[in-house]
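check this one:
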Amino acid sequence: MDDITHALAGWAVAEAGPARRWGGRARAALVLSSVAPDLDGILALAGRST
């Protein structure tokens, strides 16, 4: 999946329950954790090795 799809999947999972119970912090945590596997590609574009 691409970065946007990962983020949208994290957002959807958050909206399915945790964000309603724990608020915006849960949403942010789930979106960031869903994008985390793609950080190596983002860092590679920035010229940093992982």
Q: What stands out?
A: The chain has one domain: 3-45. Residues 3 and 35 are 6 Å apart (CA to CA).
